[in-house]
């Protein structure tokens, strides 16, 4: 008969796996793939690829397939006997489950056309993913599997949601008739993209060059470039700024990795 300790050691991973499965199922339904409306068409189209000047091109959203696959793998890996009482997995479980559920909630909210509420939800999701990055920074993964499944999945998740949050706010402001205090829209968009780039650089430095956040953030910025270069809402200044921001983030990731893991770092540690 299982002991109380064994049962408690299994309960948390089981609940986490159930939460992730529910989150993935909710995301699938909330995307409009089976019922409801495609996210591109909800809220009068403000979240579409041409809804605002900061909206990524439609191809950007294919990154969700990788993120959802990673979340599914995470649900399995964290349930393995070797991970059930692991310190890192114990710290991550609640935050990981919350991130998945918040994502599903965001999809449900936008299906209702509640852009204002969706901004609150996406920033709650972003904050949750930032906490996960802090946990991974303070308690690094000890093996390749965890580096790929935890660091890779939640890194991509954080980087992409950072871009999605900007697009979400842009959609809310545009739908509310915000005119940018009389400034040209490309000027405001360029300033926002520079802030996003600065956040990407800061994340690269803090995370010691983790690939996931930087790659996903650059991915989103590149697709903003695509959206403003070939679509119904073209803007060469915004396209160039987004491409430059993407390049800056990637350079910061490479530089941070070299400083942390390069030959000079090895010599300093020896």
List keywords for this structure.
270 residues; mainly alpha; globular; disordered N terminus; disordered C terminus
Could you characterize what this model shows?
- The protein is mainly alpha-helical and 270 residues long.
- It contains nine helices and no strands.
- It has helices at 4-30, 63-77, 87-111, 115-138, 144-175, 185-206, 211-229, 236-261, 263-269.
- Helix 7 (211-229) runs antiparallel to helix 8 (236-261).
- Mean pLDDT is 89; it is low at 1-8 and 266-270.
Summarize the structure.
The chain has 270 residues and is mainly α. It is 73% helix and 0% strand.
Bin the strand percentage: under 5%
**Mean pLDDT across all amino acids:** 89
The helix tally amounts to: 9
Distance between the termini: 50 Å
Radius of gyration: 20 Å
Q: Give the class from helix and strand content and strand pairing.
A: mainly alpha
Question: How many E strands?
Answer: 0
Write the element-wise H/E pattern from the N-terminal end onward.
HHHHHHHHH
Apparent shape = globular
Q: Which residue ranges are poorly predicted, with pLDDT under 50 across at least 5 consecutive positions?
A: 1-8, 266-270
Q: State the share of residues found in helices, binned by percent.
A: over 70%
Described by strand count, sense and barrel closure, the largest sheet is: none
The structural domain count equals 1
């Amino acid at each position: 008969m299982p002991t109380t300790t064994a049962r408690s050691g299994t309960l948390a991973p089981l609940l986490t796996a159930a939460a992730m499965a529910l989150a993935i199922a909710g995301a699938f339904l909330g995307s409009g793939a089976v019922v409801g409306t495609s996210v591109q068409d909800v809220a009068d189209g403000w979240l579409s690829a041409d809804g605002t000047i900061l909206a990524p091109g439609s191809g950007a959203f294919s990154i969700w397939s990788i993120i959802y696959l990673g979340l599914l793998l995470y649900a399995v890996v964290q349930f393995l006997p070797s991970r059930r009482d692991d310190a890192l997995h114990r710290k991550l479980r609640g935050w990981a489950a919350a991130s998945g559920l918040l994502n599903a909630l965001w999809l449900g909210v936008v299906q209702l056309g509640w852009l204002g509420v969706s901004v609150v939800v996406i920033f709650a999701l972003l904050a949750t993913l930032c906490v996960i990055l802090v946990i991974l920074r303070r308690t690094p993964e000890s093996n390749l599997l965890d580096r790929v499944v935890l660091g890779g999945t939640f890194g991509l998740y954080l980087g992409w949601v950072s871009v999605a949050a900007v697009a979400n706010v842009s959609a809310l402001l545009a739908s509310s008739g915000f005119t940018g205090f009389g400034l040209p829209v490309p000027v405001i968009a360029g300033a926002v993209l520079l802030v996003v780039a600065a956040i990407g650089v800061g994340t690269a430095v803090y995370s010691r060059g983790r690939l996931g956040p930087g790659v996903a953030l650059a991915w989103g910025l590149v697709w903003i470039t695509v959206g403003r270069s070939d679509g119904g809402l073209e803007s060469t200044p915004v396209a160039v700024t987004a491409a430059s921001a993407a390049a800056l983030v990637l350079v910061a990731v490479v530089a941070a990795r070299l400083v942390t893991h390069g030959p000079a770092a090895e010599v300093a540690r020896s």
